[in-house]
Structure formats: C-alpha cells, structure tokens
C-alpha cells in the first residue's frame, strides 16, 4: 500500500509508522531558522506550510507531518506546501509522504520543462512557465528583456505542493488573494491551482504591455529621419526575447484547455469554469505575441530597406562627384601629354581658356545632377 493510503487510515499502525518514519528523517536534517511562522523543519527549501479548513487559514506552528496527520484524520481541509528550488534530498521525504510519482518528482526538482498537465493516479501535476520583465534604461543589442522561471504544482485530494524555480514568480500575492476570498479557497486544492495559473497568465499580459513599449520605441526610431542609423541588433534582440516569451505562453494553451474541459478527479466542475476564463486570457496573450512578431518582422524589413535606400543615395552622390571630377581630370590629362603640336599650346590665352571651359562644363554637370536629385 502507498504512503498516501497508509496516512488515510486514521490511527492505523502502518499509517502511523509511515508518519513516524518521515518524522525521524526530518529530525535527522539540520534545523533551519524557525523564527518565521511559515518555516518548516523539513529543509531550507520550504517557504511555507499552511493548513486550510473551510477556506480559512489555521493558526499554529505545526510542521508538515503534523499538518498532514491532522488533515487526514479529520478528512477535512488541505495542506499547502511551498518550496523554492529544492534539492533531491530535500524533496525525497516529501515525495514519500505524499506518494508522488518519481517522474513528476524528477521534473519538479530539475525544472526546465515545457508547460504541461499530467495525471498520476489521483494526483495532478502541472508545469507553468513564469515570466518577468527586466527593467532597463536603454535597449541595446544585448539587453535582457524577459526573464523566465517555472512553477510546478502537485494537486491532490488534500494537499497542494508548489515548487518554484527562478528569481521571480513569488506566490505570496496569490496566497494573500486567496486568503482574502475564503469562499473560493474553500473549494479545495484545485482553487489554488486556478489562482496560480491565473496569476501566471496575468503576468504574461503585464510583460507583453512592457515589451510593446520597447517595440514602439524601436519603431519610432526606425521611422525617424535618420532611422537608417538604428542598430539592427536591437530589433534582433527584441525578436529573441519575444521568442522566449512565446516559448512560455504558446505551449500552455493545451494544458489549460485540458483543465477547462477534461475531467480530473481533483478539479471539480465549478473550478473548470474558471480555467475557461484563464484560457481566454492566454489566447489573448498568444495573439498579441504573434502580432508583435509580425510587427518586428515589418520593422526589420523597413529598416533594411532604409539602409538600402541610404546606400543608394550615397552611391549616387559618389557617382555624381566622380563625373564632375572627371572633367578637369580629362582636360588636364590631355594637355599634360608631352607633344609639340597641340591646339593653342603656344597661345597666350590658351591656359585661361582651358580653365574656363573646364569650369563651365563642371558647373553644367553639377546643375544637371542637382536638378535630378543626385546631389
């Protein structure tokens, strides 16, 4: 029988033995700072361990083992355990306590997964990509615009385990929002999963709005009078960062649709309606990213066209001046040859006449090029 099954047998010897085993393993770990009420002695990766009953947070300093024992004994409420980048050793006892599938545990510990939703028995495992806009004073060809992370969520009948990877994506605001709406939190662990997914998708829209400001700035610079001098590396950098955002948003569409339409034991029908709203917001984000990608392509093509036009303008100017300079070069070249019999060679006014002819021809050629827009 699994560890989860043992724990459900309130007062059962095997269940109690399993809890005592985990408790002994926890006691063998180095104790961490317990001054914060949300800290747990299971390891430094534990950020929060809270029990909820009827949507209300229980007060007290229970550790994870005691919280799970109380919830399963009363067959009411659930435990929300939050971790940040746990190691395999730190997660091993938690995986045993909640009977988590080894493949899901491996994904949660090592991260770098595509957004997905998988079912392992009665446990739902979801992977969400988080994004964050990186503030910068000036966009350069090497600026980091979008930073990504991951949130893994294990959802069971009486527990939620969140594993966060990355420097952002704190779930504190999500927890506070849920605790402010106990009627929603009372719907169980699936309500937590929805709140997390909804917060992640809202962050997508926030980052998209910030990226749009960068795109607008580059677009205005490209179509300025001296737009051909814009560094194309900035446009390529925006496209690379937009691709990073697309990798987070696009693969999440199918998992959210599955949560909204596919039956899961731990996701009641009333929660699936909320996932349909998340799916709509996600679709909007995906459409905006696709539009930005097309816009950046157009901006890049316009910039390359401007560079080509500017180069053609320069070549026309160079060609025009070369034609003007060719007139005195040809005249001086002819009369610089060492022949005795040349027209007007010994005439007193031959030299000024030659200079005058060269000047008149040069002025005429210059006016012709000027009139045609070459100069």
Tags for this model:
single chain, 375 residues, alpha+beta, Methane Monooxygenase Hydroxylase, Chain G, domain 1, 7-stranded mixed sheet, rod-shaped, disordered N terminus
Task: Characterise this structure.
This protein has 375 residues and is an alpha+beta fold. Strand 1 and strand 2 form a beta hairpin. The longest helix is centred in the last third of the chain and has 67 residues, at 269-335. Residues 1-43 have low confidence and may be disordered. Helix 4 (88-98) runs antiparallel to helix 5 (102-110), helix 8 runs antiparallel to helix 9 (232-249) and helix 10 (253-261) packs antiparallel against helix 11 (269-335). The radius of gyration is 36 Å and the shape is rod-shaped. The protein has a domain at 310-371: Methane Monooxygenase Hydroxylase, Chain G, domain 1, CATH 1.20.58. It contains twelve helices and seven strands.
Strand residue content? 5-15%
From the N-terminal CA to the C-terminal CA, the straight-line distance is 89 Å
Instruction: Describe the strand arrangement of the main beta sheet, using strand numbers.
Output: 2-1-3-7-6-5-4
What is the alpha-carbon Rg in Å? Answer: 36 Å
Number of strands: 7
Task: Report the average pLDDT across residues.
Answer: 81
Helices and strands, in order, run as HHEEHEHHEEEEHHHHHHH
Overall, the morphology is: rod-shaped
Q: Going by CATH, what is the homologous superfamily of the domain at 310-371?
A: Magnesium transport protein CorA, transmembrane region
Poorly predicted runs are 1-43
Structural class: alpha+beta
CATH topology category name of the domain at 310-371: Methane Monooxygenase Hydroxylase, Chain G, domain 1
Number of helices: 12
What is the helix content? 55-70%
Family: Belongs to the CorA metal ion transporter (MIT) (TC 1.A.35) family.
Organism: Streptomyces kunmingensis
Protein name: Magnesium and cobalt transport protein CorA
Transmembrane segments: 318-337, 349-369
